[in-house]
Each structure stands twice: as structure tokens, then as C-alpha cells.
Amino acid sequence: MMEIPAEAELCFPRLGNTSCSKTQRPRPVAAYMLLSVISVITVTLNLLVIISISHFKQLRTPANLLLLSLATSDFLVGFLMLFQISLLGGCWFFGDLMCVVYYIVDHSVTSASIGSMVFISVDRYVAICDPLCYTIKVTKTRVDISVYLCWATSFVFHCMCSLDTLKQPGRFNTCVGECVIVVAYFVGITDLFVSFIGPITVILVLHMKVFAVVVSQARALRSCAGGVTLQGSATKRSELKAARTLGVVVVVFIACIMPYFCIVISGQDVLLNASSTTFIICLFYFNSCLNPLIYAIFYPWFRKSIKLIVTLQILKPDSWQANIK
């Protein structure tokens, strides 16, 4: 594996001793290339999801609008990875204020992503456990309001958590070129419950209830026979498949995000130096790359819409009315 030789260089040579030094350990080129590729794939795939749901009329359902919110947060995460890649060398070149903004935006986007998953879980729960009232309970207006509140609440919450740091950016840096945020234990625990334990608990409880219904409906499907039941059976299969897809998304998400929150609760004060926690933060980000890949595997409409987008069929008149499902 190719490596860049370690040299005792300063992040900002003109500042002399006040500047931080670049990392002293060898930095593999493969790490830069891998993270860059992941960032590009994350941005590209989630952009395809955004274009698909936004362009094609048939896909503008309340359930897909929630997927659009999730894809938007994942799309932004792909761009945020570029800042993380720059930190592999041990230097932050964007200033103290930008460091705090990066931290706030990063956590706000992630919280919005988790919130979107909660709403998606609620959507699947209503669709499977109370299908007769689904169109009444889950409307486009209610979904739009839920998404807006989710994003606004996430941003305001993390701004409040970082209020002291916003007043004096860089207060915890030991030299110029660091991006260090100190999260107080109380704030970290609050974030843990609001952004992780609470939402994940809701998601798991809903999934347990959905799983119970899935088992009973699966048994009912096996006993279905005759032309009268075929249409209803097809609808049930579609809903069950959507629930299974969400289950995969949730399991992958928990596996990727758990290491970060384990660090949050590991000490009295958590020092978040992005250059020293690269692996965990990138694992945190990698989930955003996996979500659209899961859609591509489980959702035929996504594969069909990708084909229309890549071949530029969406540029044709009335392409937004194309039959995708």
C-alpha cells in the first residue's frame, strides 16, 4: 500500500510555533482515495433518489416524500465528508467559526436523518397495521409539516447545544489549525437521548408491532386462493416488502451510528477532535452511502428511474408522467 512519508510540517508555516503540526504518522493514499470515492458515491446516489422522487409525479407519495427527506440528509452528508477527508492530514484550514458551523450542520443533518427514519417507521406502521385509515391519517400536508418540523427542530437543538462555542469559536484549540469541540457530559447525554435512544426506541417498538402483523399476514397470504384475493395479496406483499426494506435500513443505521454514541457516554467530557476520530466519524457517514444502495436492491421503481435519468429520458416533454412503478 502506498504511503505518504510523514514529515514534521506545520499546518500554517507563516504562523510559526502557534501553528499546529501535521500528523506525524504515515498517511495511506488509499484512505484518501477510499473516502473520496465514498463521498462521490454518496452524493451521486442520493442525488438520483432526490431527482427521481422530485421529477416523477407517480413517485410523489407521502411515503416517498419521507424517503426524499432521508435522501436529502444523506446527500448533505456526502458533502460534509469532504471536510473530514481534509482532516486526515491533521489540519483544519477553514477557520474556527467554520469548525463550529461544520459541527452544528453535521449533527443537525444526522438528527434530521434519524427523525426521517422515525416518520418512515410510523408511515409503515400505519400502512400495515391500520391500512383502512392510511389515506386519512397520512396525507401530503401532514408529511410536509412533519419534515419541516424535523429539520427545524434538529437545527435549533444543535445550535443551542453549541451556543457557548458559537460565542467564542476555537476556545478549546491548543494551536492554529485544530478543529476541537468539547461536548459537556450533560449536553452529550441529552443529545444521546434526543438524537439516538429516544428515536431508535420508537423505531424498534414500531418494528416489533409491524413484525407481529407481518407474521400473521404472511400466514394469511399462504392461504389466499382465487382471483378475488389476488389484488389484495399483491398489495399486502408490497407493504410487507417496504417494511422489510426499512428494517434493513434501520439495522444498518444502528450498526454505523452506535460507535459514535458509545464515545459520547464514555467520559465526563468528550473531546471531539475530528482528526483523531476519523474512522468512527466516517463509519457514521458511510451509512448515508448504503441507504440508496439498499433502495436499488429492494425498490424496482428506483432502478427504473435511474435508467431514465442516466439515459436523459427525463429531458423529454411529459417525462414526469412516466409510469415508474
Shape: globular
Order of helices and strands: EEHHHHHHEHHEHH
Largest sheet: 2 strands, antiparallel
CATH class: Mainly Alpha
Q: So how many helices?
A: 10
CATH fourth-tier homologous superfamily: Rhodopsin 7-helix transmembrane proteins
Distance between the terminal alpha carbons, to the nearest Å?
45 Å
Unreliable stretches, pLDDT < 50, 5 or more residues?
A: 1-7, 226-230, 268-276
CATH topology: Rhopdopsin 7-helix transmembrane proteins
Q: Helicity, in percent?
A: 55-70%
CATH architecture: Up-down Bundle
Helix vs. strand class: mainly alpha
| Widest β-sheet, arrangement of strands | 1-2
Query: What Rg is obtained from the alpha carbons, in whole angstroms?
Result: 23 Å
What number of structural domains do the residues give? 1
**What fraction strand?**
under 5%
Mean pLDDT: 77
Strand runs, count = 4
Q: How would you describe what is shown here?
A:
The chain is 69% helix and 4% strand. With 325 residues, the protein is mainly alpha-helical. The relative contact order is 0.14. The model is unreliable at 1-7, 226-230 and 268-276 (pLDDT under 50). The protein has helices at 29-55, 62-86, 96-129, 134-137, 140-161, 163-167, 185-223, 230-264, 278-298, 300-310; strands at 3-4, 27-28, 180-184, 269-273. The chain contains ten helices and four strands. The protein has one domain (33-321): Rhodopsin 7-helix transmembrane proteins (Rhopdopsin 7-helix transmembrane proteins). Helix 8 (230-264) packs antiparallel against helix 9 (278-298). The chain starts with a strand and ends in a 15-residue tail after the last helix. The strands form two sheets. A two-stranded antiparallel sheet has the order 1-2.
